Amino acid sequence: ANYGPNPICKGCLSCSKDNGCIRCQHKLFFFLRREGMRQYGECLHSCPSGYYGLRTPDMNRCSRCRIENCDSCFSRDFCTKCKTGFYSHRGRCFRGCPAGFAALEELMECVEGCEVGQWSEWGTCSRNNKTCGFKWGLETRTRQIVKKPAKDTMPCPTIAESRRCKMAMRHCPGGKWRRPAKTKDKKKKKKNLMERAQKQHSIFLATDKTSQ
Length: 212
Description:
Layout (H helix, E strand, L loop, with lengths): L11 E5 L3 E5 L4 E7 L2 E7 L6 E4 L6 E4 L5 E6 L2 E5 L4 E3 L2 E3 L6 E4 L4 E4 L2 E2 L19 E7 L2 E3 L12 E7 L14 H31 L1
Antiparallel strand pairs: 1-2, 3-4, 5-6, 7-8, 9-10, 11-12, 13-15, 14-16
């Protein structure tokens, strides 16, 4: 029987009073809605969240997305919109973007990020552009940007880093090694203290002799 006046039968070609739509009008999608133990058919212009429209010669149907954490999909295995908190990448949904891809927050998508090469060997230990004359210096290594990101707003990883190193040659050939300024200042202060102490001691001895 056709229960056209019944709201549950809207868009149906044939309808059951208990089970709703059985067949839909042309271009509409048949969707089997489940509510607890009950289920009934509906005819919709577009499929609800978590489903996609599958067109067949027999009847268009709403088929469930089989992709985890997908909100809407283009086909069974290609998600077009992920659930809140998940990033879309090549038809799948991820909590975080895969290696080599950066998160585009405004669209919740993973796009090609900045790709860098391997680190070079550590460079020569130097300080103030000199490879001698100091005990400690810095050595640096670098890596090249192989592929720039799709958007300039996405930063690239560090392409240069330095670390403390010990000079191979503390004394420069043919030159006199100089102590750092701090060491010189300490020696000068110590010398002044010694001289002051000796002077005070001399005054004390002279005063002691006079009193005798």
